[in-house]
Amino acid sequence: MPNKTAIGQRGRLIILVIYLAGLVIASWASLGSPIPPASERGIWFYSALGALLLGNLLVTPFFTKPADAIAYGVAALVAMLAANVWGAAASNGFDKFTWSVAVLDVVLVLAAALVAIAIKDSSHPFWQRVARSCFILADALGSPRAMFSVVFFFALITYHRSVPREYIIIALAWAVFVGLRPLEGIAVLARRWRAVWSVKEGVARFGEIVGHELPDVILVREDAASSANLGDLLLARTDRGDVGIAVALDHVGFADGRWLRAYHLSHAEAANDAASEAGLGHAITNGEVFLLAESNRNTPPYRDAADARARLLGFVAPDTTVGQLQIELVRSDLPLRQGCLVQVPVSNKTVLYQVIEGITKEEIVQQKNTRGFVRAQAKKVGTWNEGSRSFDPVPWLPNPNQPVLLVSEQGCPVEKEAIGHFPGTAYPVRVDAHLLVTHNAAILGILGVGKSFLALELVERMIDAGIKVICLDLTTQYSTELAAFMDGAAAEQTEELLAVGPAGKENVRQNKEEGGSVQEFTAKVREQLETFLNQNDPRMLKVLNPVQFEVWRQTTNPYQNQAAMATLTPTEVTRIISEMALEVLQEQGVTDTARCCIVYEEAHSLIPEWNAVASEGDKTATNGTAKAILQGRKFGLGCLIVTQRTANVTKSILNQCNTVFGLRVYDATGMEFLRNYFGEDFSGVLSTLDDRHAVVFGRASSCRDPVLIRLNDRSDFIRVFREPAPAANEGDEVA
Question: By residue range, what is the domain housing residue 402?
């Protein structure tokens, strides 16, 4: 069945002119005048004219609203009242009956339209049905064609039945020009024939445009036997009115059928060439859509279509900001997950975003139908600079309806400079070891997600950058994993420190501050750190376990050469080491680069928060450590905090950590703390991170905004980062 919208407005205007000419000829033939008089003998002409003007050709070509039905009904009623046969002496009973039936029909339509408008918003089911029934009646009987037909036939029967010539000619004119409407049928038939015979090979009529989602997205009603798949190319009119090439996307359902969404590509020259070759320029600008066969796969449109099939996710959706991208997904068959990268054009640059969240949405579409869809949220990363191997910022947002492409899965080779990669890609993330130390850093996450392996990697990077590292480790992991960076003297120095402390248990002094072995232990620590932190000393790593050291402190004044003694806690030993490191570096002077980093492994035991201390002395000790770290920056001293219990680590130091690595966390305190660094978006993904994944943000990162990365595996890092041992020459002696 031909569609009512198949004839353009220009075509309807031409048909209207032809029909008006036909009415003029009919008037001349029947009444002897091209324009009938404005009396009862001319009512038929003006009724036909109204039906043509207001009917299917110009004003109301599609459907009649109740408000339109009221307007047409009032016009018809005025015409009927002007020809009131009840007041005419020459009228008979049949004329009065005909007039009454016509007036009753008009009044019925007016009443139905008024009721439909009055109770359309009623909440009662019965009145909702009444309103709907009245709407249907007004649409069926209130169209210009129906309303003016009533007036026409009343005038024809009442005023022209006695003259056969007038009766026959006027009736035929109405039947041809208003009833049958042959020219519309001929026009639709011609267009359909042209679509079959005038289209060249490789192009086939597909459907017609029924709507635009500005910019660049069109809605297409497919012909009965037509169908398209994702990535098919269409010749269609753009929202600017010219010829364009569009790529088929998904289907959306509405009350009157299923529509195809398509996105216009920026290939105006190729579109014009294809339309000109097929002779379809005029048809396309009138709203027809044609399907292109893939005859030349090497042209830009077909390459874009292939890219769409492989990587197109969706479009830039409303509420997108400079920093956050909203994506309306048009497909679900791609491997989309948290951490994936997508690309969008912004100011003629390809800008990458990282997907961090997804949410299902629903919207009301035509006639209260709903459409469910998925929207993804992504944070801006920047545009990739191959020269610097980093991302440059792009301080603007994409245009609405820009296509969003998924960055293809790639191998993730471990690079010597990178601590990890964006998941599923080869884009690396690097850290600056000096900024990592001078501005302090923290690694936060639950047990078993890769904190210590990351810390070990960062320690090796610091050593490689010429930064000395003091690891305060309550386990033996650092000594074992970093044995390659320790020499035989390390064990001897540890033995010296272990030997200093126990003797202090019997060292009772009149001044309790001098009792015990605190002063001796502090002096020995300072002595060792002076040697270790000397720039001429080749050693780069020192590992100490504060729990190992038995250091005694006299707690009371002596009585009969006896006094109470207590051992220093790991927190107090940590303070001594931190303060002595600061004193040694202060003597070396101010510097802008990092000299030494203190790693606080299991930091909740070494620098606890005030409400998590084991003794009152730990509060003072933690404050002393924090003071040393806060003062250390100008002398090249910084720290790396590693903990699984964020709530139990002193915030005096933790809040000074400019670079933070957030691995999987669950506790509310940790989530709240990381929210202050990463913002709401990335803090929401922390509880669902996979092992060896982290959110990274801070001064030392090569990315200016928080990013989710896949960390290096320990074995891969060692293989790539550590230089292989040089091969022995053939003439060398073998020990």
Answer: 310-409
